Amino acid sequence: MKGVGPQRADLLKKELGIYIFKDLLEHFPFRYIDKTKINLINDITPLTEYIQINARVMSLEILGDRRSKRLVAEVKDASGILELVWFQGVNWVEKLLTIGQVYLFYGRVSFYQGLPQMTHPELEMLTNDKSESKNFLEPVYPSTEKLKARGLGGRQLAKLTYSLIQLLQEKDVPENIPQQIIESMKLSQRFQSFVQIHFPRDQEAHMQAICRLKFEELFLAQLRMQLVKTSRHRTSKGVVFNHVGDLFNRFYSKHLPFELTGAQKRVIKEIRKDTASGRQMNRLLQGDVGSGKTIVALLCMLLAADNGYQSCMMAPTEILAQQHFRSLSALLENMPVEIRLLTGSTRASERKKLLLELAEGSIGILVGTHAVIEQQVQFNNMGLAIVDEQHRFGVAQRAKLWDKAMIPPHILVMTATPIPRTLAMTAYGDLDCSIIDELPPNRKPIVTVHRNESYRSQVLDFIREEIVKGGQAYIIFPLIEESEKLDYENLMRGYENVKAFFPEPKYWISMVHGRQTNQIRETNMQRFKNKDTQIMVATTVIEVGVDIPNATVMVIESAEKFGLSQLHQLRGRVGRGKEKSFCILLTGDKINSLARERLLTMAATGDGFKIAEKDLELRGPGEIEGTRQSGVLEFKLANILEDKALLEQAGALALQVVENDPHLNSADNLLLKEYLQALRGKTAWSKIS
Ligand code: ADP
Ligand code: MG
510 pairs with which residues across the strands? Predict the structure, then answer.
């Protein structure tokens, strides 16, 4: 392309991933400049963010030594004088600017020693060439400092894109969405949309173009998910669990400690239908904290055993794996099923024996951490893999499960907390989804309050009252990074304070954190579980899944530091027994508005599905744990939060297309098929599990 020599081409590749015309065409503007809107230097106030000025360069000076070299320019318009500063590309910009010339400068205003200045403004020489200015808005593109220093700032990229569009014709950017959908959604035509998003004719055309391209993005992503899902339904061979046998029935009638909820029964039916179909199951099980996912998992594993298959259940932490192992072992006490635990701390001799038994098939259920997906762990015939509290389990780790058996095992992914619908659609769209939307009966809502530091002694008094009544309390400290010294010291200080208020031997305290050995952690957990200790001081290692029904108080220290789903998880550690439970969110006096909103949300609702939606709203899709690395949310234009309605429509239409024409063979879908084939190989997530 004209204007792009080898050096610039190289930079475009390295800095922006632009290799070919298509990449440049899809490098969308992040804002637009209305050239008719020029600010005056004198109008700058402390509140001014961005300005665009038309000013003459009065002086140019390179200051500082080699390490702190900078270029300072003084520019002047009819109203006043402003200082512009460059720290990078100093020599290059100096050559570019001529004293006495008028330029258009655009950039962010900052204040240095009380005076306004602009650092690294974008600049453009004002010429009489009006050929490009007939457009309503001028695009500005994301760029980088390195590119700017080589004359490829946001505005120069606009010039490149402009010449690219001059080169293109409609046939180069063919339509890819079926005509019927274009009409029903009133979408603008594809080529025109690309032209209009870069160089909008007017507001209307601009909005149309954005809408069309966002829809395309969402529709294609949903379509690919649906295609993966249906092709797997059609072709992936799965082991067959076609009979409900003695183990399942015996457990169900004799050892089930409670009546299942309607939702639990429904989900088990869905799973049974799936696993009997002869196709491999890939199912996401969503349920709120405490909704009883564990028992569902156990019944499925018994179903596998009834059909002669082994299962494994993976948990994200050692504590959880141990707890699962213990509670499952207790439930299976009078059942002829071998259940074993494998974690990183399993002793070598024991591990060796276990691996042998696993390979020969005498172990029916293996519970463990990541250790179970290591290469050396070979099953005799694994038929079902359950991944608990999935958000800490990477996509790649799940993929390893495929290699554990000749026929890939059925996979059940259980979430720790509900996930918002839009997120489920985009991140797990190729999994079937089951939802437990009902809590076991007689759960009392957990009373949640927010208190600041000045209430500390009342909070401690309250804990004492609960202990006198026979309850137990958790006190949780933030430990974002297990190794962070400061957090650790806070925890220790907190522990000492609690201990001073609750002295031995009248009270005993357990403490659990990431710096302990597994054995010490384990002993502390066990003592709390056995009611030998009344208080558990812990960090978030306790977070997921821990089940101690006698605990009635959850105090969260520095609650403003926690995210919503984490708070909800922590709160879910209480309210598991018959007694009324409490969650106290302690914070300092000053907290920011986002944190305040999180705390208000916690106090207002106990519904995990609502909390998940709020969490997404407050944090934005990019910040949601566990999905970032998979890249599935990286839409160029669409945003699953703002474009929720469009996503839902796109999802429904994609489903319709795939249901009517799973191979995209009809004439209507021909362009779509060709387009997808050209893209093939670019999805990292075509097989999420
Ligand atoms: P989660 O879905 O958070 O993993 P668990 O499986 O740990 O929840 O279950 C939470 C608690 O509820 C456990 O103590 C479990 O024994 C109990 N429970 C599960 N299902 C029922 C039910 N149908 N009736 C009564 N209690 C139940
Ligand atoms: Mg659980």
Answer: 536
